[in-house]
Amino acid sequence: MNKEKAAHTGLQVVSSGSSLWEQFLEGDRHAFARIYDIHIDHLFHYGMHFCQDKERVKDCLQDLFQDLWLTRENLSVNVRNTRYYLISSLRRRLLRTLQKDRRRMLCETDNAFEFELIRPQEDKRILEETAEEQRRLLTEALARLTRRQREAIYLRFYQDLNYAEVAGIMNMQVDSVYNIISKAISILKKTISLPLLLVFLGK
């Protein structure tokens, strides 16, 4: 898809990612390795937020990239955002493994486990310099959010996905994602100061 067509349709194009994706589909091992290097930390970080099971996340990531390579001839060339595609694929794999694990699932829905929103290291360093009271208030505020609110905020502000992409990953309508994030921010605003909220959201 060229830039003129993308601009006309309003679609997001990441040139380097698209180029690497096309080279990967053609069997370029270096391009495949580059895609892995660019996205693996983000994927692992998301996976650990999602289920807090390191070995499960590592296994799913290994299977994900193995299947990508083996099935590359059947994959679409029209992947406009590689990270969105990979996060969506990882989420589906994690859900499948969790649904099969009867010891960890209370029912066969994605609402039976928590999504932990853990602040990245740079934010932790900033927050360590704030008063203990601010840290306590932030913890209390996060505890008031639902799992879906925490996941939506993580995808929107920490993975820098747009609302449509967040909706696609979470199997929701875009309007619902807007509402969830808006409500979550409103809850946070009632508990913590605006400067601390901006730090937390990475603004």
Topology of helices and strands:
Blueprint: H1 3-9, H2 15-25, H3 29-51, H4 54-70, H5 82-100, H6 121-128, H7 132-143, H8 147-158, H9 163-170, H10 174-191, H11 194-200
Helix pairs in contact: 2-3, 3-4, 3-5, 4-5, 5-9, 7-10, 8-9, 8-10, 9-10
Describe, in plain words, how this protein is organized in 3D.
The chain is mostly helical and 203 residues long. The chain folds into 2 domains: 89 residues, Rna Polymerase Sigma Factor, Chain: A, CATH 1.10.1740; 80 residues, Winged helix-like DNA-binding domain superfamily/Winged helix DNA-binding domain (Arc Repressor Mutant, subunit A), CATH 1.10.10. Helix content is 70%, strand content 0%. α5 runs parallel beside α9, α8 packs across α10 and α9 packs across α10. It is elongated and about 55 Å long. It starts with a helix and ends with a helix. The N terminus is likely disordered.
Remind me, CATH topology of the largest domain?
A: Rna Polymerase Sigma Factor, Chain: A
SS field, number of helical segments: 11
Low-confidence stretches: 1-17
Number of strands: 0
Distance between the termini: 31 Å
Order of helices and strands: HHHHHHHHHHH
Largest sheet composition: none
CATH-level-2 architecture of the largest domain = Orthogonal Bundle
